[in-house]
Design a protein that fits this description.
Blueprint (H helix, E strand, L loop, with lengths): L2 H13 L5 H19 L6 H5 L2 H15 L5 H13 L8
């Protein structure tokens, strides 16, 4: 699954009014982790330590360019930030 497809699925889950809240949260967390794995596949390896900050910013910039096309962009960015922030999903209904 590509980053574009992952973001599309995140948007779809956010807007879904039929799934139970906990199911949506778990799905969003899994999608966020999958996206991180696509954007920064080096995470958790020795190679990650060698990545320049500019390179990481460049990769996430491409993700933000995809996300900005969605009405739910703020929520999508929150989901994508979850692996780093560990925030809760209080806003999911």
């Amino acid at each position: 699954m590509s980053v574009t497809q992952i973001i599309y699925r995140i948007d779809k889950v956010i807007r879904d009014t039929h799934k139970p809240r906990q199911t949506k949260i778990e799905t969003l967390q899994n999608l966020a982790m999958t996206c991180w794995g696509k954007v920064i596949p080096e995470d958790g390896t020795e190679t990650f330590k060698k990545l320049e900050s500019d390179e990481i910013q460049k990769r996430w910039s491409m993700v933000r360019n995809i996300v900005k096309k969605y009405k739910t962009k703020d929520q999508i960015l929150y989901v994508l930030d979850w692996p780093a922030s560990g925030g809760n999903f209080y806003w999911i209904k």
